[in-house]
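Quick illustration, no need to memorize.
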Amino acid sequence: MDKILVVDDSESVRVALKAILEQAGFEVEEACDGLQALARLQEKPDFAMILLDINMPEMNGLEFVKEQCQIENICRIPTILVTTESHPKLALEAKKTGVVKAWLTKPVKAEILTSTIKRILTKLRGTY
């Protein structure tokens, strides 16, 4: 079973995303900001994917992906930004890191989220 890390400062968003992902057959862990996510990833870098908000305290999503792409054992983990932000400049900046594979705007529909995850994992692995 693939494990996904959901990083968002909103508990209600984390709970909603976790429910969608678990129903789709994924194992889910949570972090409330980028710093907590980095700590968890350095302990256990065995995640198949990261779902990441942008606007968070301590370390925001863009700061996180810049750090992520500098750390060898976690730079390979594909990341999807799930955020209320929709500015094209932010999306371009995030995608330049190489770790961001998609950008979804909240509120995200369950079928769009799960199909995006499966499409990315299939592309990276060749099968799902």
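Strands lie at 3-7, 27-31, 49-52, 79-83, 100-105.
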